[in-house]
Amino acid sequence: MRYLHTMVRVRDLDESLDFYCGKMGFVEVRRSENESGRYTLVFLAASEDVEAARQNAAPLIELTYNWDPEDYSGGRNFGHIAVEVDDIYDLCQSLMDAGVTINRPPRDGRMAFVRSPDNISFEILQKGNSLAPAEPWTSMQNTGAW
Question: What's the pLDDT score for residue 48?
């Protein structure tokens, strides 16, 4: 397993970049905009992690700016912790066998979500290419929120 990023939702992207980059010293290493989803993702690395982040895309802070205004009360601004694994199906099966609910199954062979006992959301990503769709994941429905 490799730690990838932590996602934080921000209400004002410019103000947040001023804080994270201008004041705290993080460096923007990549950005993507999704018009259909109406959001922008900005990935930041700590100054000593910039080269590693550019080569491996980790470890990062992901600022998520939703274009439609939203009040992030009650901790909604913190999104999830992301990890990358060698075999998403094996890990999800192991977690299920240990009693962990798979909130968003890896139907696409690429991404799943689970929650910690304290309701911290974990995004699990398949290392490299997505695995071929397989049961029981393909037909498994979402459970709860992530």
Answer: 87
